[in-house]
């Protein structure tokens, strides 16, 4: 009986050591993966396209290019009011609409107007480098 107990204790000790070693290896693996992900450049995660020129209208995400005539305001006034109330700047080009990311003061100056934008498209968002009104 004593001999059997010795072997049970040896097997239990070996199993515990194997479990501890496996747990240590998993912890090291998780740390390596986490470190590799934090060192990735933001460009590799979401690489924006190169800068292009877009022609269309700067407006708001609430009305897009269909500002209500009932309020008696111009498209510029309507877009500025909507932006002040929390809407985002958007760019309408034909049937396509993009969110705009850039200098709010420059975008506010051309709100409701037809413009030429130079920027980088990333998904549904254009990062604006420059904007010129009246084109």
Your description of this structure?
With 135 residues, the chain is an alpha+beta fold. It is built from four helices and five strands. Strands 1-2-3-5-4 form a five-stranded mixed barrel. β2 and β3 form a beta hairpin. The radius of gyration is 30 Å and the shape is rod-shaped. About 5% of the residues have low confidence.
How would you describe this structure in keywords?
135 residues, alpha+beta, 5 strands
Strand and helix layout:
Layout: H1 2-38, H2 42-45, E1 51-60, H3 75-84, E2 89-93, E3 96-101, H4 104-109, E4 114-122, E5 125-133
Parallel strand pairs: 3-5
Antiparallel strand pairs: 1-2, 1-4, 2-3, 4-5
How would you summarize what this structure contains?
This protein is of the alpha+beta class and 135 residues long. It contains four helices and five strands, in the order H-H-E-H-E-E-H-E-E. Strands 1-2-3-5-4 form a five-stranded mixed beta barrel.
What is the count of helical runs?
4
- The coarse silhouette is rod-shaped
Task: Summarize model confidence as the mean pLDDT.
Answer: 79
> Terminal Cα separation, in Å?
96 Å
Helix content: 40-55%
* Stretches with pLDDT under 50, minimum 5 residues: 40-46
How large is the radius of gyration?
30 Å
